[in-house]
Design goal:
single chain, alpha/beta, seven-stranded parallel β-sheet, 23 strands
């Protein structure tokens, strides 16, 4: 009974290290790991020990006999990753080699103190890597009142298993030496220079918080948004809770066909009664109950063989939604199939070839995939009325009417005050996470990056684990070699400064109170009902119990 990796795989590699026979690939030290759409279990090598199930932070691994019907395609997908062996037994080996956390050499001037800016996966994995060493102190700064970045505000509400990784992050946040400073914005309440005065190093894991923009006429009209704004809206991000999402027309067009586009299309066509059992924001659920949307068109510039969505997401989409193709696009799929040798792409095309016909009457909200369409302009005068596309590679145009036009063409990093920035790549220039001065090419003392601001918006949640580990190894090497200067102030001075600049700072107790309040609001039918305004979040945080007197006294003595 082999185990199988399914759609919610986050690629953090924990299963790889837990497997006693090295049957899960690609591993973090293999070339394809950083770009792999998911990890795969070799069914012939699996010994059914279940170690990977316990190690997986998102519950993506299951015995093949316990899969749900919609998960059955992943049995074949896992097996297809491994070449045929002509009857030979699969090779097995000992536990995959684990990269040990870097050893911190204690210095007489105090413990290694690191400020981590951001609280998403890259930030939390970096904190975890640092805190494997005794005596290290990590302060995590987040501008929102709640932590965990895109895991909270980006993962679709109907993918609860993916959000299980927050359980791991909660355990990390409870580690000795970890401190949360939520609702604190670096660059507004504190500067980079001030953080360096209070820490040996500052590590930025702020992601790529804005969208790449589509530069065509009509973008900016009412009824045009980015898909990531809609994601933030239905996930209850406080800055997007009041976003106007017009669902009064029967059709929505999304330009771009990556995984985010598929997520948004799925939510916009889902049964609201099903969504009511998730942690979707209340305002979004109410709007979706009143929605008139019957079709979401996902339009791509290139052909089906170049589809940007991953195969696991396509399998998941077709298992739960009605997905259709126009006849012309079906012909494109069939024409591309004989020319494709890559197995993943071929599997995508095989699935696309079996989709329904878009000419059939619409009986329930559906998703239509469309190809070879280059956006030319948004139609409409006072508000969006559709999109005029050029048929890629021809002089023909094609209009698609819609009352809501979304763009989903990728994320983009933004400059960080006090650090250099590469405008072309939209990342902080770095070597292995060490921030580099663009003029001299030398490392900027005490400054580091991890995650998307380091490497660009690539990979999945778990990809940030190996990315953060690389940065931390270099940071610790610099500390051990004496290249990081000691903080100029005692630890208690940081806390006093933060609270003087931002009295509404939320610590770990405050986040725990918010978490408990949201879970209680969810009742018996929802995992949580999110608080979506800063005011309400602050009120919930204020209900946290006081720190016991003995702990305050100890903290004072330490400072």
């Amino acid at each position: 009974m082999p185990h199988v990796v399914t759609q919610s795989c986050c690629s953090d590699g924990s299963c790889v290290y837990a497997c006693p026979v090295n049957c899960i690939h690609p591993t973090p030290d293999e070339p394809g790991f950083a770009t792999a759409e998911m990890l795969y279990i070799d069914p012939d090598a699996c010994v059914d020990c279940g170690a990977c199930v316990s190690a997986c932070p998102v519950g993506a691994i299951s015995p093949d006999t316990k899969l749900q019907p919609e998960q059955l395609p992943f049995v074949e997908l896992n097996a297809a990753f491994y070449p045929k062996r002509e009857g030979k037994l699969p090779p097995t080996s000992k536990l995959a080699p684990v990269l040990q956390a870097p050893m911190v050499h204690r210095r007489p001037d105090g413990p290694l103190r690191v400020a981590v800016v951001g609280s998403g996966p890259a930030a939390m994995y970096a904190a975890d890597e640092l805190l494997t060493q005794r005596g290290v102190e990590v302060s995590v700064f987040e501008k929102l009142p709640t932590p965990y970045g895109l895991v909270r505000a980006g993962v679709a509400p109907d993918h609860p298993s993916t959000k299980r990784v927050t359980r791991l992050f909660d355990r990390i946040a409870q580690s000795p030496g970890f401190t949360f400073y939520l609702n604190v914005e670096v660059g507004r309440h504190l500067t980079h220079a001030e953080l360096l005065e209070h820490h040996n190093a500052v590590l930025y894991a702020v992601g790529a918080p804005t969208d790449r923009r589509l530069d065509i006429d009509g973008i900016g009209l009412p009824g045009t948004l980015t898909a990531t704004e809609v994601v933030a809206w239905y996930n209850g991000h406080p800055e997007f809770a009041d976003l106007t999402v017009d669902l009064t027309d029967e059709r929505v067009v999304i330009v771009g066909n990556g995984n985010v586009a598929l997520d948004v299309a799925r939510i916009l066509t889902a049964d609201p009664d099903v969504l009511a059992r998730t942690d979707i924001a209340d305002h979004a659920l109410a709007a979706l109950r009143d929605s008139r949307v019957q079709e979401v068109v996902i339009a791509a510039r290139r052909g089906p063989e170049a589809s940007a969505f991953t195969l696991p997401e396509l399998i998941g989409l077709t298992a739960t939604c009605e997905v259709v193709l126009d006849r012309e696009d079906r012909d494109r799929v069939l024409a591309a199939l004989p020319e494709v040798s890559d197995p993943l792409t071929r599997n995508k095309l095989e699935i696309l070839s079996k989709l329904g016909d878009a000419s059939a009457p619409i009986t329930r909200p559906r998703i239509r995939l469309a190809y070879q369409l280059t956006p030319h302009r948004v139609l409409g005068e006072q508000k969006a009325a559709g999109v005029r596309f050029a048929v890629t590679g021809t002089d023909r145009t094609h209009d698609i009417a819609a009352g809501l036009v979304l763009t989903s063409i990728g994320y983009r990093g933004i400059p960080i005050p006090g650090l250099p920035f590469d405008e072309t790549a939209a990342v902080v220039p770095n070597a292995g996470g060490r921030v580099l001065d663009p003029d001299s090419g030398k490392p900027v003392a005490g400054s580091y990056v991890a995650g998307w601001i380091k490497r660009g918006p690539t990979g999945f949640i778990g990809t940030n684990k190996s990315c953060a580990a690389e940065t931390v190894r270099n940071l610790v090497d610099d500390y051990n070699d004496g290249r990081l200067t000691a903080p100029a102030h005692k630890p208690s001075a940081l806390d006093r400064m933060v609270r003087s600049r931002q009295p509404d700072v939320i610590d770990h107790r405050g986040w725990a109170a918010i978490d408990a309040a949201e879970v209680a609001r969810g009742g018996d039918h929802r995992p949580r009902a999110k608080l979506t305004s800063v005011v309400n979040l602050l009120e919930a945080a204020a209900a946290a119990p006081e720190v016991p007197m003995h702990r305050r006294l100890l903290a004072g003595l330490r400072g």
